[in-house]
Write a structure and sequence with these properties.
Layout: E1 5-13, E2 20-27, E3 32-36, H1 43-50, E4 55-63, E5 66-67, H2 73-79, E6 81-84, H3 96-102, H4 112-122, H5 139-151, E7 157-161, H6 169-184, E8 188-192, H7 196-202, E9 205-210, E10 213-219, H8 220-225, H9 227-233
Parallel strand pairs: 3-8, 3-9, 6-7, 7-8
Antiparallel strand pairs: 1-2, 1-4, 4-5, 9-10
Helix pairs in contact: 3-5
The structure holds adenosine-5'-triphosphate.
Length: 239
């Protein structure tokens, strides 16, 4: 059972001046929402704030009826929130299987073997690599391990920071397809992505941040069709 994510008037930072200010957005259950914007706009800070890794000065973050502001990260995982950071997101010396196991520590699934089977069905590339150190895999495969680990706690909401960063075009397509497969399982996805045009093609909604504030929001289709959005954020005319 997934629940709506509601961020309301959220202001947060790292102890100095706020990095994000008065951010509001909602992500409906089972949707893919993408956060876009220029470098330094505060996109990663917003994800980190939802995952309780910054200092909140004002506002609220709700998953369903539950207020998340004030919860520690370790308490968020059992509440159904999981996250994949942008870099260093696998334990390089641990095997793929051990990496997946790490995802169960904060919120053990009811049936770990069954959950792992479901995840390996999503990421069949990992099936014959379970015993291999994650550090020996390709960038795309490592991203799959990181996503698989985040899914092992059976989250309602998964936060992904640039899941296609540094990947080849072929892997980029694979990761976007995988996000659609994950969405089909009912999990809500909120992600930051640099490949803005492709992300909007699979996203239900997009939110563009500029200088830490909401700039424009809309459905993926609306943002792709908006001339100003295309010119300023998508590198010009439609492909
Ligand atoms: N741990 C930190 N401590 C202090 N300031 C930080 C920290 N992390 C990020 N910042 C600052 O917050 C601002 C926003 O950074 P953030 O990484 O959220 O932007 P972004 O939109 O994700 O950028 P990019 O697209 O380049 O990844 C930047 O000015 C950055 O220097």
């Amino acid at each position: 059972m997934t629940e709506r994510l509601s961020v309301t008037d959220l202001t947060a930072g790292y102890g100095g001046p706020p990095i994000i200010e008065d951010i509001s957005l909602t992500v409906e259950p089972g949707e893919i929402a993408v956060i876009l914007g220029p470098n330094g706009a505060g996109k990663s800070t917003l994800l980190k704030t939802i995952f309780a890794l910054t200092q909140v000065a004002a506002g609220s973050i709700r998953l369903g009826a539950k207020e998340l502001v004030g919860c520690k990260t370790s308490a968020l995982v059992p509440l159904g929130v999981s996250a994949v950071p942008q870099s260093k997101n696998v334990f390089a010396t641990l095997s793929v299987e051990e990496n997946l196991d790490v995802g169960t520590y904060a919120a053990p699934p009811k049936d770990k073997a069954a959950t792992r089977e479901k995840i390996l069905a999503l990421f069949p590339d990992l099936k014959d690599k379970l015993g291999q150190p994650a550090g020996e895999l390709s960038g795309g495969q490592r991203q799959m391990v990181a996503m698989g680990r985040a899914l092992m706690s059976e989250p309602k909401l998964i936060l992904l920071d640039e899941p296609t960063a540094g990947l080849s075009p072929a892997y980029l397509e694979r990761i976007f397809d995988l996000l659609l497969d994950i969405r089909k399982t009912g999990i809500t996805i909120l992600m930051v992505e640099q490949n803005a045009r492709q992300a909007l093609q699979i996203a239900d909604h997009g939110h563009i941040l500029v200088a830490g504030r909401n700039h424009v929001s809309g459905t993926g289709k609306e943002l792709l069709a908006d001339e100003d959005v295309r010119r300023l954020f998508l590198g010009g005319a439609a492909a």
